[in-house]
Amino acid sequence: MPSQPDPSAVTLRGGELAWRPVSPALRTVRLITLFVWLGPFLIGFVLAALFVSPWFGIGAGVVAALLAWGTWLIVRQVSAISWIELDEEIVIRKGRLWRSLVSIPYGRLQYIDVESGPLMRSRGIASCEFHTASPASGGTLPGLPLEEAEALRGRLAARGEAQRAGL
Amino acid sequence: MTQANSRPPTSSLGDWQHLHPLSPIVRGGLVGLGIVGYAASQLVDDVFRSAGEGESGDDGPGVSDGLGYLFDHSLVAAAVIVGFLALVGFFGWLSWRFAKFRVADGQIEYRKGWLFREHRQVPLARVQAIEISRPLLAQLTGLSQVVVQSAGGGDSHLKLAFLGAGRADEVRRELLDLAGRSDETRLDAEDRLVSDGPDGSQPATPAASRDEGREVLRVPNSRLFVATILHGGTIFLGAMAFVAGGAAIAAYGTSFSALTGAVVALPALGPIAFGVAVNRVQELLKHGNFRLAETGRSVRVQHGLTDKRTTSVPLHRIQAVEMVQPLWWRRFGWWRVRVNVAGVGSEGATGEADETTMLPVGTFDQALRVLTLLDPALSEDDLRQAALGDGTTGGWTLVSERARVFDWLSWRRAGFAVTAHSLLVRTGRLSRRVASMPHARVQSLTLEQGPWERRRRLAGVTLVSTPGPVTVAARHLDVDVATALLHDEAARAREARRLTRARSSGGDVLVSDGDRIPRTGCTAYGTTGQLVAPEHPATEPAKPADGIPHDPVARRDDERTHQ
């Protein structure tokens, strides 16, 4: 636990608080997903351009551009996610172009979902979703190391219990 | 429940345990039945055909050839069937093997999944109701599912599907025991999807909210009729008809032919007109004979022209309120009041709007009365300023000057004000809108900034509420002001939660949240963002000494700052 971080130092840009990044493995996972989806198209277009008609090169170019853009986006997005546990809230920052910051009081937590698919698990990460009574809270923390996610879940559940507030 | 925490679960639920072995089959039942049925019908088909033709094979290439082949080679067929069954059985076994639940540390935990694992836990204290349901297939196999409803709405329900019928009853009883609830809670769950007490204490006796109560107001159907017609859709239609008529006159002169032109143009509007009409009539039918009564701790709403409905909404379940005046209603000074109610509005479109409209159309005074009834801590002066005022009078902070591009019409009005009890947000110059949310009801807070806002150093703050028609969001604020508002609101929400906690552990949960929180005037936010958290009263003028006024009268005539 960071020692008594000051909640009033939370800003959209981060400020001087000890924000914790998510695992870089998340980047790998998302990149793999991206390439698994778009890679076949790229190969298909390239083959078609070679053997059918050079016009398919345009498609290949478009897919390649999409890949490059997606890669750039993922790298930036993942590096923009950071979070911090305060005394009474967990604060998650996301996004570069559309920046957002969500602050979820422990006392409002209804339950916490920890999920990890095979790909994420193979990289040792999981995603933590925080549910309050409002589905719009949007507190998802993707890409935490597995044991950290479990620990966080347990910790927050305990703190939520202690600081619980009725609706 | 502290008892549930301290006492080790005496019941059988302490250890991980599995669901009924048949449950994967019942869960996948319909799909399985479909597949089996299809295969069987194909098989029977083949049998008959081959029986009729005596010899198979001269059927020519057909769809059922594969199956026919299987039928001819019974060994292969048997292998395929056995293999298929084994596969199904294996996956069923896996699913059964990895799905387990237990109750530990005051939480109901449920794990499932082999490839995609999921672990869900619901604190016992958050349990709203526990139900047993038996879908058809489960009924045939004598199984039941236990549904643990928690405050988060449909998505957060925890379903233990399936258990043996007897076991399900046991589990339900034990869970209810552990959650410190009685059976009446379940019976009464409809009335109180979300109960107030964090410790599960019951608010009022249900009987109190069931009686007739004191009538607050009725909405005359004639007014409702006019108000329903004055709607964007109908106005648009009227304007279109007018334009069409004008065009026809311009084109054909003022004679008979103009009329025919208009008549020709009308059918084009037909579908739209029909849609609008249906929508308006529905609205009228729904809100007709509207009556609002107060029963002390809840409000009773009666409405419906043909289908009369009575709903009673406990005040403590109301999360946020808004009053809206569409442009078309301004001439009459009419307003509409809607609310967010915890546990309502998350389930689908039907019935959603029913319980959230507290006043379909009413005069300004009526709207004020309803709002102060719903949230006694709101002051009429604040609301008046919020509804009709503009500028910074009354402690309002407006959108940043740099936001005039976005709010070119409403920059003089759009803004927010903080009272000791709640945050008020007002928007709209032509159609006016005021939303309010008590600090104690804040679920979470977001601070957002899009690319265009960033260039102008603006940001918006949203107070996230439970699902419903009301959103409380102050947009296009100066970044520093927005950040300061975020901190301030977080601090106030913390404080309010602490008060609620203290109060409920003190045993007195009968007072709604707003009642004991001292009300100060609105806090003025400098454009520089020099905002003060409520813990530092020195910089906040006219803040009464810390302490909790128990006298409800003292709450009414507190001083307000006008800056």
Task: Write up this protein.
The complex is a heterodimer of chains A (167) and B (563). Chain A has 167 residues and is of the alpha+beta class. Chain A has 2 domains: 26-77; 82-162, Roll (PH-domain like). Helices cover 44% and strands 23% of the residues of chain A. Chain A has helices at 25-51, 56-80, 118-122, 146-162; strands spanning 20-21, 82-85, 89-94, 99-105, 111-116, 125-131, 139-145. In chain A, strands 1-2-3-4 form a 4-stranded antiparallel β-sheet. Chain A starts with 19 loop residues before the first strand and ends in a 5-residue tail after the last helix. Chain B is an alpha+beta fold and 563 residues long. Chain B has 17 helices and 21 strands. In chain B, the strands form 5 sheets. A 7-stranded antiparallel β-sheet of chain B has the order 14-13-12-18-17-16-15. Chain B has a 4-stranded antiparallel β-sheet with strand order 1-2-3-4. Chain B is extended and about 85 Å long. The chains are: A alpha+beta (167), B alpha+beta (563). At the A-B interface, strand 4, strand 5 and helix 4 of A face strand 4, strand 19 and helix 16 of B. Strand 5 (111-116) of chain A pairs antiparallel with strand 4 of chain B, so a sheet runs across the interface. Chain A: The chain crosses the membrane at residues 29-49, 55-75. Chain A: Pfam families: bPH_2. Chain A: This is YdbS-like PH domain-containing protein. Chain A: Residues 86-155 form the YdbS-like PH domain.
